[in-house]
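Data deposition worksheet. Section B asks for the primary sequence of the deposited chain exactly as it was used as input, without tags or linkers unless they were present during the calculation. Section C holds the resulting structure in token form. Section D is free text for depositor observations; keep each observation to a single sentence. Incomplete worksheets are returned to the depositor.
Section A, Depositor: J.P.
Section B:
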Amino acid sequence: MAGIWDQLVDAICRPPRDVYNPAELLGGNSHAFMVGNMEASRIDYELKNNAGQQIMVSHYLPMNAHTRDDKLPVVVYCHCNSGSRRDAEEAVWHLLPCGVGVVALDFTGSGLSDGKWVTLGAREVDDQAVVVHHLRTQGGVSSIALWGRSMGAVTALLYSARDPDIAGMVLDSPFSRLTDLMLEIVVSQRLPIPKVMLKLALKLMRASVKRKAGADISTVAPLDVVGCSLIPAMFGHGREDSFIGMHHSGVG
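Section C:
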């Protein structure tokens, strides 16, 4: 029972980490690559969040793209709980030919960024804010949209309540409330916990995650904040998603 409980807690705050060599990113060591007949490049840089942790970022750009004011729209890709900025490749292939740049980051606790723990949106939203602020202040960007998957989609939703100037969002398989998802996971694992004790089990899990990762899972509730957002959003959800049920995207 203790082993299963530890696995459940780790499923939240320490899923498998995608550790890779930067040479595996699009463009490799040269940072140059082709998208169809279009030349493209990758610019890597590092930012720091409010906790002083390093965030690894890649900015993918079409070469020789001409606009009236030399500014391009950009989409920030937000990866899932066991993902990294490598997951943005699909967005790069689709968006660069349209003259849209793609920015991908490793949230802290993921990929090559600092940090040990994943918090399913609780702290990732602060990393998101750092990246968006950098894009707005460094110039060269006309508008910013978000594309997130699973934890990344949740992070985008949480961030949308802070920033009404986001141009739009693509949201792939978000959950509505983390506490609801945790109850579903406990039930799906068929642990020998009576139904009347499930809420107590959730409180214990909340305490375990807070003790390990320093994050409160009860604050990760996109459904409670999206009512304040007027940002256009497109939702999608995998029919065979075994972690987050489709009903989470249909709530509201």
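Section D:
Strands lie at 32-35, 38-48, 54-62, 72-78, 101-106, 141-149, 169-172, 233-236.
The chain has a mean pLDDT of 90.
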